[in-house]
Amino acid sequence: xxxxxxxxxxxxxxxxxxxxxxxxxxxxxxxxxxxxxxxxxxxxxxxxxxxxxxxxxxxxxxxxxxxxxxxxxxxxxxxxxxxxxxxxxxxxxxxxxxxxxxxxxxxxxxxxxxxxxxxxxxxxxxxxxxxxxxxxxxxxxxxxxxxxxxxxxxxxxxxxxxxxxxxxxxxxxxxxxxxxxxxxxxxxxxxxxxxxxxxxxxxxxxxxxxxxxxxxxxxxxxxxxxxxxxxxxxxxxxxxxxxxxxxxxxxxxxxxxxxxxxxxxxxxxxxxxxxxxxxxxxxxxxxxxxxxxxxxxxxxxxxxxxxxxxxxxxxxxxxxxxxxxxxxxxxxxxxxxxxxxxxxxxx
Length: 347
Hints:
This protein has helices at 91-98, 122-128, 161-171, 189-198, 272-284; strands spanning 45-46, 56-60, 65-72, 75-80, 105-112, 142-151, 154-155, 179-181, 184-185, 203-208, 221-225, 228-239, 247-256, 259-266, 299-301, 307-312, 314-315, 321-322, 325-329. It has 347 residues and is α+β, with helices and mostly antiparallel strands.
Protein backbone atom coordinates (compact mmCIF):
# COMPACT_ATOMS: atom_id res chain seq x y z
CA UNK A 1 0.00 0.00 0.00
CA UNK A 2 1.48 3.33 -1.01
CA UNK A 3 -1.32 5.68 0.05
CA UNK A 4 -0.62 8.16 2.82
CA UNK A 5 -2.24 7.28 6.13
CA UNK A 6 -1.61 10.66 7.75
CA UNK A 7 -3.62 13.26 5.84
CA UNK A 8 -3.29 15.83 8.62
CA UNK A 9 0.46 15.86 8.11
CA UNK A 10 0.55 16.88 4.46
CA UNK A 11 0.99 20.62 4.53
CA UNK A 12 3.66 21.24 7.13
CA UNK A 13 1.26 23.15 9.39
CA UNK A 14 0.88 22.78 13.14
CA UNK A 15 0.09 19.08 12.79
CA UNK A 16 3.55 17.54 12.59
CA UNK A 17 4.70 14.11 13.65
CA UNK A 18 7.77 14.06 15.88
CA UNK A 19 10.56 11.62 15.05
CA UNK A 20 10.54 8.36 16.96
CA UNK A 21 12.56 8.54 20.16
CA UNK A 22 15.29 5.95 20.71
CA UNK A 23 14.44 3.21 23.18
CA UNK A 24 15.95 3.79 26.63
CA UNK A 25 18.50 0.98 27.21
CA UNK A 26 18.29 1.64 30.96
CA UNK A 27 14.58 0.81 31.07
CA UNK A 28 14.13 -2.07 33.54
CA UNK A 29 12.86 -5.38 32.19
CA UNK A 30 9.25 -6.10 33.06
CA UNK A 31 8.23 -9.47 34.53
CA UNK A 32 6.70 -12.03 32.20
CA UNK A 33 2.90 -11.81 31.99
CA UNK A 34 0.52 -14.43 30.57
CA UNK A 35 -0.98 -13.34 27.27
CA UNK A 36 -4.72 -12.59 27.54
CA UNK A 37 -7.06 -14.41 25.19
CA UNK A 38 -8.87 -11.12 24.54
CA UNK A 39 -8.83 -7.52 25.83
CA UNK A 40 -12.12 -5.63 25.98
CA UNK A 41 -11.43 -2.45 23.97
CA UNK A 42 -11.14 1.07 25.32
CA UNK A 43 -13.84 3.23 23.69
CA UNK A 44 -13.90 6.95 22.93
CA UNK A 45 -16.44 9.25 24.57
CA UNK A 46 -18.13 11.76 22.28
CA UNK A 47 -17.34 15.43 22.98
CA UNK A 48 -18.26 18.61 21.15
CA UNK A 49 -14.87 20.36 21.46
CA UNK A 50 -11.29 19.05 21.83
CA UNK A 51 -9.64 19.14 25.26
CA UNK A 52 -6.82 21.59 25.98
CA UNK A 53 -3.48 21.14 27.66
CA UNK A 54 -0.33 19.02 27.41
CA UNK A 55 -1.98 15.94 28.93
CA UNK A 56 -3.69 15.05 25.65
CA UNK A 57 -2.38 13.58 22.40
CA UNK A 58 -4.32 13.62 19.14
CA UNK A 59 -4.85 11.23 16.24
CA UNK A 60 -7.04 11.11 13.13
CA UNK A 61 -10.41 9.46 13.71
CA UNK A 62 -10.53 6.55 11.27
CA UNK A 63 -13.82 5.24 9.89
CA UNK A 64 -13.63 1.46 9.69
CA UNK A 65 -13.83 -1.71 11.79
CA UNK A 66 -12.13 -1.82 15.18
CA UNK A 67 -9.83 -4.84 15.34
CA UNK A 68 -7.28 -6.39 17.66
CA UNK A 69 -4.39 -8.35 16.17
CA UNK A 70 -3.07 -11.14 18.40
CA UNK A 71 0.37 -12.37 17.38
CA UNK A 72 0.94 -15.63 19.21
CA UNK A 73 3.45 -18.48 19.00
CA UNK A 74 0.78 -20.63 17.34
CA UNK A 75 -0.13 -18.01 14.76
CA UNK A 76 -2.08 -14.78 14.22
CA UNK A 77 -5.67 -14.00 15.18
CA UNK A 78 -7.63 -10.96 13.98
CA UNK A 79 -10.50 -10.25 16.37
CA UNK A 80 -13.41 -7.84 15.94
CA UNK A 81 -14.48 -5.45 18.66
CA UNK A 82 -17.01 -8.05 19.82
CA UNK A 83 -14.38 -10.81 20.00
CA UNK A 84 -15.27 -12.64 16.78
CA UNK A 85 -12.39 -14.22 14.87
CA UNK A 86 -12.16 -12.52 11.46
CA UNK A 87 -8.67 -13.68 10.53
CA UNK A 88 -10.08 -15.21 7.37
CA UNK A 89 -11.77 -11.93 6.38
CA UNK A 90 -8.52 -9.93 6.52
CA UNK A 91 -5.86 -12.30 5.12
CA UNK A 92 -3.46 -9.54 4.02
CA UNK A 93 -3.46 -8.00 7.50
CA UNK A 94 -2.92 -11.40 9.12
CA UNK A 95 -0.08 -12.17 6.72
CA UNK A 96 1.56 -8.81 7.43
CA UNK A 97 1.25 -9.39 11.18
CA UNK A 98 3.00 -12.76 10.88
CA UNK A 99 5.94 -11.04 9.21
CA UNK A 100 6.50 -8.41 11.91
CA UNK A 101 9.13 -10.59 13.55
CA UNK A 102 7.85 -10.65 17.13
CA UNK A 103 6.92 -13.65 19.25
CA UNK A 104 3.91 -12.18 21.03
CA UNK A 105 1.96 -8.92 20.68
CA UNK A 106 -1.55 -7.48 20.77
CA UNK A 107 -2.13 -4.49 18.49
CA UNK A 108 -5.24 -2.34 18.85
CA UNK A 109 -6.36 -0.42 15.78
CA UNK A 110 -8.78 0.08 12.91
CA UNK A 111 -9.16 -1.74 9.60
CA UNK A 112 -9.86 0.80 6.85
CA UNK A 113 -9.85 1.22 3.10
CA UNK A 114 -8.10 4.44 2.11
CA UNK A 115 -8.89 6.72 -0.80
CA UNK A 116 -6.22 8.50 -2.87
CA UNK A 117 -6.04 11.31 -0.31
CA UNK A 118 -5.39 8.92 2.57
CA UNK A 119 -8.90 9.25 3.99
CA UNK A 120 -10.78 6.22 5.30
CA UNK A 121 -13.86 5.20 3.29
CA UNK A 122 -16.32 3.10 5.32
CA UNK A 123 -18.45 2.28 2.27
CA UNK A 124 -15.41 0.99 0.38
CA UNK A 125 -14.48 -1.19 3.36
CA UNK A 126 -17.97 -2.68 3.44
CA UNK A 127 -17.86 -3.36 -0.31
CA UNK A 128 -14.47 -5.03 0.05
CA UNK A 129 -16.08 -7.47 2.51
CA UNK A 130 -19.08 -8.11 0.28
CA UNK A 131 -21.56 -5.94 2.19
CA UNK A 132 -23.41 -6.84 5.37
CA UNK A 133 -23.42 -10.60 5.80
CA UNK A 134 -20.98 -10.91 2.91
CA UNK A 135 -18.36 -13.65 2.87
CA UNK A 136 -15.65 -11.89 0.86
CA UNK A 137 -12.12 -11.42 2.11
CA UNK A 138 -10.84 -7.86 2.09
CA UNK A 139 -7.55 -7.49 0.24
CA UNK A 140 -7.75 -3.68 -0.02
CA UNK A 141 -7.90 -2.97 3.72
CA UNK A 142 -5.09 -1.57 5.87
CA UNK A 143 -4.78 -1.99 9.63
CA UNK A 144 -3.87 1.30 11.30
CA UNK A 145 -2.40 0.49 14.71
CA UNK A 146 -2.85 3.05 17.48
CA UNK A 147 -2.07 1.07 20.63
CA UNK A 148 0.11 -1.78 21.87
CA UNK A 149 -1.48 -3.82 24.66
CA UNK A 150 0.93 -6.74 24.96
CA UNK A 151 4.46 -7.12 23.68
CA UNK A 152 7.14 -9.79 23.92
CA UNK A 153 5.66 -11.40 27.04
CA UNK A 154 4.76 -8.14 28.80
CA UNK A 155 1.25 -6.90 29.60
CA UNK A 156 1.26 -3.17 28.80
CA UNK A 157 -2.34 -2.36 29.71
CA UNK A 158 -1.32 -1.13 33.16
CA UNK A 159 1.28 1.28 31.79
CA UNK A 160 0.47 4.83 30.73
CA UNK A 161 -0.39 5.61 27.11
CA UNK A 162 2.80 7.60 26.52
CA UNK A 163 4.87 4.48 27.22
CA UNK A 164 2.66 2.28 25.05
CA UNK A 165 2.86 4.75 22.16
CA UNK A 166 6.64 4.97 22.52
CA UNK A 167 6.94 1.18 22.23
CA UNK A 168 4.43 1.06 19.35
CA UNK A 169 6.33 3.76 17.44
CA UNK A 170 9.54 1.78 17.79
CA UNK A 171 7.86 -1.52 16.91
CA UNK A 172 6.27 -0.23 13.69
CA UNK A 173 9.02 2.19 12.70
CA UNK A 174 9.37 1.94 8.91
CA UNK A 175 6.60 -0.68 8.57
CA UNK A 176 4.37 -0.19 5.51
CA UNK A 177 1.79 -2.25 3.68
CA UNK A 178 -1.25 -3.89 5.25
CA UNK A 179 -0.18 -2.84 8.76
CA UNK A 180 0.81 0.76 9.43
CA UNK A 181 1.14 3.14 12.34
CA UNK A 182 -1.69 5.57 13.07
CA UNK A 183 0.45 8.64 13.60
CA UNK A 184 0.12 10.95 16.56
CA UNK A 185 -0.39 14.52 15.34
CA UNK A 186 0.88 17.57 17.18
CA UNK A 187 -0.78 20.92 17.62
CA UNK A 188 -3.73 22.66 19.23
CA UNK A 189 -6.82 20.45 19.30
CA UNK A 190 -9.15 23.08 17.86
CA UNK A 191 -6.77 23.75 14.97
CA UNK A 192 -6.35 20.05 14.29
CA UNK A 193 -10.12 19.56 14.24
CA UNK A 194 -10.57 22.45 11.82
CA UNK A 195 -7.82 21.02 9.62
CA UNK A 196 -9.44 17.57 9.71
CA UNK A 197 -12.85 18.97 8.77
CA UNK A 198 -11.42 20.98 5.88
CA UNK A 199 -9.85 17.79 4.50
CA UNK A 200 -13.10 15.84 4.64
CA UNK A 201 -12.05 13.62 7.54
CA UNK A 202 -14.52 12.35 10.13
CA UNK A 203 -12.79 14.10 13.04
CA UNK A 204 -10.04 13.56 15.61
CA UNK A 205 -9.40 11.42 18.68
CA UNK A 206 -7.92 12.81 21.90
CA UNK A 207 -6.25 10.46 24.40
CA UNK A 208 -4.93 11.17 27.88
CA UNK A 209 -1.19 10.51 27.90
CA UNK A 210 -0.91 9.36 31.51
CA UNK A 211 -3.74 6.82 31.69
CA UNK A 212 -3.45 3.03 31.50
CA UNK A 213 -5.55 1.07 29.02
CA UNK A 214 -9.00 0.82 30.60
CA UNK A 215 -11.78 -1.07 28.85
CA UNK A 216 -15.07 0.67 28.13
CA UNK A 217 -16.02 4.32 27.67
CA UNK A 218 -14.09 5.83 30.58
CA UNK A 219 -13.33 9.30 29.22
CA UNK A 220 -9.61 8.54 28.83
CA UNK A 221 -10.23 8.65 25.07
CA UNK A 222 -12.44 11.29 23.45
CA UNK A 223 -13.84 11.59 19.92
CA UNK A 224 -14.58 14.97 18.36
CA UNK A 225 -16.36 14.82 15.02
CA UNK A 226 -16.72 17.16 12.04
CA UNK A 227 -20.01 15.66 10.89
CA UNK A 228 -21.87 13.54 13.38
CA UNK A 229 -22.08 9.88 12.51
CA UNK A 230 -23.45 7.18 14.78
CA UNK A 231 -25.08 3.76 14.83
CA UNK A 232 -28.84 3.49 15.40
CA UNK A 233 -31.19 0.52 15.67
CA UNK A 234 -33.68 0.05 12.82
CA UNK A 235 -37.07 -0.66 14.38
CA UNK A 236 -39.10 -0.70 11.17
CA UNK A 237 -39.84 1.25 8.02
CA UNK A 238 -42.45 3.46 6.41
CA UNK A 239 -44.09 2.09 3.26
CA UNK A 240 -44.28 4.33 0.21
CA UNK A 241 -45.84 3.48 -3.15
CA UNK A 242 -43.55 5.93 -4.94
CA UNK A 243 -40.25 5.09 -3.23
CA UNK A 244 -37.61 2.51 -4.13
CA UNK A 245 -39.03 -0.98 -3.65
CA UNK A 246 -41.79 0.49 -1.49
CA UNK A 247 -39.46 1.63 1.27
CA UNK A 248 -39.89 5.31 2.08
CA UNK A 249 -37.74 5.64 5.19
CA UNK A 250 -36.20 3.62 8.00
CA UNK A 251 -37.46 4.11 11.56
CA UNK A 252 -34.55 4.62 13.95
CA UNK A 253 -34.05 4.30 17.69
CA UNK A 254 -31.27 5.02 20.19
CA UNK A 255 -30.69 3.65 23.67
CA UNK A 256 -31.73 5.35 26.88
CA UNK A 257 -30.71 3.08 29.71
CA UNK A 258 -32.50 -0.19 28.93
CA UNK A 259 -35.15 1.49 26.79
CA UNK A 260 -35.36 2.34 23.09
CA UNK A 261 -35.97 5.98 22.21
CA UNK A 262 -37.36 7.21 18.89
CA UNK A 263 -34.90 9.48 17.04
CA UNK A 264 -36.85 9.88 13.81
CA UNK A 265 -36.31 8.30 10.43
CA UNK A 266 -33.89 8.37 7.50
CA UNK A 267 -35.07 8.34 3.89
CA UNK A 268 -31.92 9.22 1.94
CA UNK A 269 -28.61 7.52 1.27
CA UNK A 270 -29.80 4.16 -0.03
CA UNK A 271 -30.38 3.10 -3.63
CA UNK A 272 -32.96 0.70 -5.05
CA UNK A 273 -30.81 -2.35 -4.31
CA UNK A 274 -30.27 -1.25 -0.70
CA UNK A 275 -33.98 -0.54 -0.32
CA UNK A 276 -34.93 -3.96 -1.65
CA UNK A 277 -32.59 -5.75 0.72
CA UNK A 278 -33.67 -3.65 3.69
CA UNK A 279 -37.38 -4.15 3.08
CA UNK A 280 -37.17 -7.90 2.54
CA UNK A 281 -34.97 -8.33 5.62
CA UNK A 282 -37.16 -6.14 7.82
CA UNK A 283 -40.29 -7.96 6.62
CA UNK A 284 -38.74 -11.22 7.86
CA UNK A 285 -38.11 -9.52 11.21
CA UNK A 286 -41.68 -8.21 11.40
CA UNK A 287 -43.34 -7.89 14.79
CA UNK A 288 -46.65 -6.67 16.23
CA UNK A 289 -44.85 -5.44 19.36
CA UNK A 290 -42.77 -2.44 18.25
CA UNK A 291 -39.68 -1.47 20.21
CA UNK A 292 -41.07 2.10 20.29
CA UNK A 293 -44.85 2.70 20.12
CA UNK A 294 -45.18 4.91 17.05
CA UNK A 295 -48.37 5.81 15.21
CA UNK A 296 -48.87 5.80 11.45
CA UNK A 297 -50.93 3.75 9.00
CA UNK A 298 -47.96 3.03 6.71
CA UNK A 299 -45.52 1.92 9.41
CA UNK A 300 -44.12 -1.61 9.42
CA UNK A 301 -42.40 -2.65 12.65
CA UNK A 302 -39.45 -5.02 12.96
CA UNK A 303 -37.57 -6.66 15.78
CA UNK A 304 -34.56 -4.51 16.82
CA UNK A 305 -31.84 -6.46 15.04
CA UNK A 306 -30.36 -4.40 12.19
CA UNK A 307 -27.99 -1.55 13.08
CA UNK A 308 -27.67 1.35 10.63
CA UNK A 309 -24.74 3.72 10.32
CA UNK A 310 -26.20 7.21 9.89
CA UNK A 311 -24.60 10.58 9.18
CA UNK A 312 -26.46 13.66 10.40
CA UNK A 313 -25.93 17.37 11.04
CA UNK A 314 -27.30 17.56 14.58
CA UNK A 315 -30.41 17.16 16.71
CA UNK A 316 -33.79 18.86 16.65
CA UNK A 317 -35.35 20.23 19.83
CA UNK A 318 -37.62 17.20 20.12
CA UNK A 319 -34.70 14.74 19.95
CA UNK A 320 -34.80 13.70 16.30
CA UNK A 321 -31.89 13.50 13.90
CA UNK A 322 -31.40 16.55 11.70
CA UNK A 323 -30.65 15.91 7.99
CA UNK A 324 -29.87 12.19 8.41
CA UNK A 325 -28.31 10.13 5.61
CA UNK A 326 -28.04 6.32 5.59
CA UNK A 327 -24.47 5.04 5.17
CA UNK A 328 -24.83 1.29 5.52
CA UNK A 329 -25.46 -1.56 7.94
CA UNK A 330 -23.05 -2.57 10.66
CA UNK A 331 -22.01 -6.19 10.97
CA UNK A 332 -23.23 -8.08 14.02
CA UNK A 333 -19.67 -9.31 14.57
CA UNK A 334 -18.41 -5.73 14.55
CA UNK A 335 -20.39 -5.23 17.79
CA UNK A 336 -21.24 -1.65 16.89
CA UNK A 337 -22.60 0.24 19.87
CA UNK A 338 -26.04 1.74 19.28
CA UNK A 339 -25.97 5.43 20.17
CA UNK A 340 -26.80 6.15 23.81
CA UNK A 341 -28.81 9.31 24.40
CA UNK A 342 -26.79 9.99 27.53
CA UNK A 343 -23.85 10.77 25.22
CA UNK A 344 -25.79 13.48 23.39
CA UNK A 345 -25.41 15.99 26.21
CA UNK A 346 -21.64 15.68 26.69
CA UNK A 347 -19.79 18.94 26.06
